[in-house]
Design brief:
The complex is a heterodimer of chains A (574) and B (168).
Chain A: E1 2-4, H1 5-15, E2 20-23, H2 30-35, E3 43-46, H3 50-64, E4 68-72, H4 76-90, E5 95-101, H5 117-120, E6 127-130, H6 134-149, E7 155-161, H7 162-166, E8 168-170, H8 190-202, E9 206-210, H9 212-217, H10 220-229, E10 234-236, E11 251-254, H11 261-269, E12 272-276, H12 282-285, E13 296-301, E14 315-318, H13 321-331, H14 338-350, H15 364-375, E15 380-383, H16 387-395, E16 404-405, H17 416-426, E17 432-437, H18 448-453, E18 459-464, H19 469-478, H20 493-499, E19 503-507, H21 510-522, E20 527-532
Helix pairs in contact in A: 1-6, 3-4, 3-17, 8-13, 10-13, 11-14, 15-16, 15-21
Chain B: E1 4-13, H1 18-28, E2 33-40, E3 46-55, H2 57-68, E4 73-78, E5 84-95, H3 101-110, E6 114-118, E7 122-129, H4 131-142, E8 146-151, E9 155-158
Antiparallel strand pairs in B: 1-3, 1-4, 2-3, 5-7, 5-8, 5-9, 6-7
The chains are: A alpha/beta (574), B alpha+beta (168).
Chain lengths: 574, 168
Amino acid sequence: MKMTGAQILCEGLTREGVEVIFGFPGGVVLPLYDTLPHYPQLRHVLVRHEQGAAHAADGYARATGKVGVCLATSGPGATNLVTGIANAYLDSSPMVAITGQVARPLIGKDAFQEIDITGITLPITKHNYLVPDAASMARIVKEAFYLARTGRPGPVLIDVPRDVFVEQAEFHYPNQVKLPGYRPTLKGHPEQVKKAAKLLNEAQQPVLLAGRGIIISGACDELRYLAETAQIPVVTTLLGIGCFPESHALSYGMLGMHGMAYANLAINGADVILAIGMRFDDRATGKVAGFAPRAKIIHVDIDPAEIGKNVRVDIPIVGDARTVLKELNKLAAPAQHMDWVRQLDDWRKEHPSTVIRDCEELLPQYVIRQIYEVTQGRATIVTGVGQNQMWSAQHYFYERPNSLISSGGLGTMGFELPAAMGAKIGRPDEPVWCVAGDGGFQMTIQELATIVQEKAAVKIAIINNGYLGMVRQWQELFYGKRYVATPLTCPDFVRIAEAYCISALRVRQKAEVAPAIEQAMADPGPFLIDFMVAPEENVYPMVPPGASLVELVEDPGKAARVAPDSAKLPVSDM
Amino acid sequence: MAPTRHTIVALVEDKPGVLNRVASLFRRRGFNIESIAVGHSELPQLSRMTIVVDGTVTSVEQVRKQLEKVVEMVKVSDITPDDIVARELALVKIKTTSATRGDIIEIVDIFRANIVDVALDSVTVEVTGDEEKVDSLINLLRNFGIKEIARTGRVAMTRGGTAPLAGE
């Protein structure tokens, strides 16, 4: 049966189980938009800026585990997607981005709204395609979704020339892909797994270091089984948060620059670290030379290029986290590690990183904790980047995978609102809170209109300190308190919200926090709360840039420093 | 660890943009490509690349792993430690006069190179061999005045029956 390129694309999307497309129309994609009404199962969400479409698709993908889809026209539409695509690439989010391109005879002529988007996105996509003709469309759509969701997931871009949308071709959707160069290794090498099990069984002070790969591969149960069977403490990366219940006795929180003091001390003291589905990012490891100095490291990752890239690894295992853990669990000997666990619990008592200072001022940490209390830990928290993100990671406690959605690798301010919208559209029955800074919120504030139009009841908490807070914190600590380009004059966010027909409140006092959150939760629609918090509050613990994890600095208002020489703060690039 | 010269061979699907993807990866990971040669392989729809780079063993290993992630990359192998045959072809155009032509022909014969084009004031020499042989011929011919040089860069294969890129 003959179909147009646009129809074949829509047929492919429906066959891949797509339900939502986040997009913005324009000249060359009009043939596709004209076809969309014939596919009512494809819900189109009209964003206000294409960056919002890419972040929304990313948030949707993380909330649902499905491939997120975004759509933009050629030229500026396509380039506006770039930040969102890069964000998905660094955080391994499955995404298919569809862009229009000028008609084939015009390609290379610098035609109106022509840009080489496959060239531009080459280093930030898992793969990309310029569709040469309608006859190739079905195969390309099939491959794109397969690549996006398998192996280490990531974004795939499909660039479609205008005349390919209208060209006719015989429609046949392939049952399988033919990609001779693409064969992700799922099963760990049995000998390596055996060696890893032996090392782990002999360990006295083991730590499980879990990343987002656990969540992506659905290995949370297997991780928990291993932790409980062998009584091994669990530490997670920022993006690994939620893969292991934070209320669990063996959970010691997040490691890294703003990780829990006891998580960093656990890494420092460990004799064996089993790192799974994580990539030893510099924000997680601190100074590499000082990372886990006593530990032998077993590294499990589906991407062979991540193994040995940043830290030395004693036992590398290439494979899918769940598949490898299942094999490992068969060999794991029951153990207690009582002294080690007791040591970690002592550290937890001595360095209570999640305890919030008691004071009159409205502290941002207190706001986050109140959101946790009122939502009973059942919300999906979508954060911006900076202080609001770190406080959200530290002071909300996560029990389920993907209950924290955050831009980890790229650190994209402006991710929060569109990603929260995508998450809410993906999980309409669950409370979704967007935790934003007053800086990042203004980067994608236009999506307030989209959440209203789409009736996406996102609850928004602005942690308003009148600064680009994390940058200000660095200026305070490392640049002699010279606050260059960080103080912000913000608009009246309550009146902004009201202009978009969104109910809103401003909160200045501690006593108002919980009632405001309750009111937001009771409201059936979107809701915004502008929390006017202590302007110069810092995020602690903090591992100064260039320092080892053990050189962390704790809240000076709360506890003594851990390492005596940590006052000498080495400074490196931010 | 000191950087050393590595010879990487790769089998890629013959599709638009593949060379760009490979070259871009080297640039992004901070590698200077010494030479890259691309042509058909023994298999239909697959091209073979020979890439020469300088780098430490660990950094070249990282690039090899990153190359493997290119979807159209079917196989890639660092054959540096293997026993290999490596060859390069060069075309060299040299200024001649009736007085120098005989000397040039003599040198070309010693190197088992060929003269592939003759004009009144120039000859073009084709030479095949490893880089050292090509370099030494060019050095000798420099005395006569070189007008143009075109070199293909290295192509390489392991010696003996093994074929690290073949099989399925």
